């Protein structure tokens, strides 16, 4: 699918790499800030959301790792300024059941999250997985 061709425009995440919603909100804030400054690194606001969530400086790697593919079975869909019509259209695009966002942590693959974000066991002794991921998202541009 070509970027920017889906209506409504959406961000599709591999949900097993999302330990909670807070890091996604931090990535969304960064995407909105980049858009307000006319400084998006990607083509669309929604691809910018996935790129920012990844913590990586490589766009293609970020979209490949954190976006979905043909075999994805557990996804998180993000949408900025969703209207009720957008939500209905989104539900029509996805074959599957909707779950509560609080259930994200139950299906998160801690081993993959640790690998992709390069989080060490020592770091988890002093902070949570959510905090470590959020730190990498927030600090990507200054490292």
From TrEMBL:
InterPro entries: CGI121/TPRKB, CGI121/TPRKB_sf. The keyword tRNA processing applies. It is found in: Nucleus. Keywords: Nucleus, tRNA processing. Pfam families: CGI-121 (PF08617). Gene3D superfamilies: CGI121/TPRKB. It comes from the Eukaryota. One of its GO terms (cellular component) is nucleus. Its main location: nucleus. One of its GO terms (biological process) is tRNA processing. NCBIfam families: PRK14886.1-1. Belongs to the CGI121/TPRKB family. PANTHER family: CGI-121 FAMILY MEMBER (PTHR15840), EKC_KEOPS COMPLEX SUBUNIT TPRKB (PTHR15840:SF10). This is EKC/KEOPS complex subunit cgi121. It comes from Physcomitrium patens. The lineage of its organism: Eukaryota, Viridiplantae, Streptophyta, Embryophyta, Bryophyta.
């Amino acid at each position: 699918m070509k970027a920017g061709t889906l209506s409504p425009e959406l961000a599709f995440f591999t949900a097993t790499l999302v330990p909670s919603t807070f890091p996604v909100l931090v990535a969304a804030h960064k995407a909105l800030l980049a858009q307000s400054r006319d400084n998006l690194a990607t083509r669309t606001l929604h691809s910018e959301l996935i790129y920012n969530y990844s913590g990586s400086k490589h766009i293609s790697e970020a979209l490949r790792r954190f976006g979905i593919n043909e075999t994805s079975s557990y996804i998180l869909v993000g949408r900025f300024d969703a209207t009720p019509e957008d939500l209905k259209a989104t539900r029509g695009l996805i074959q599957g059941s909707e779950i509560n966002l609080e259930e994200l942590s139950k299906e998160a693959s801690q081993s993959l999250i640790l690998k992709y974000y390069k989080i060490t066991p020592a770091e988890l002794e002093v902070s949570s997985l959510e905090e470590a991921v959020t730190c990498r998202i927030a600090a990507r541009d200054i490292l």
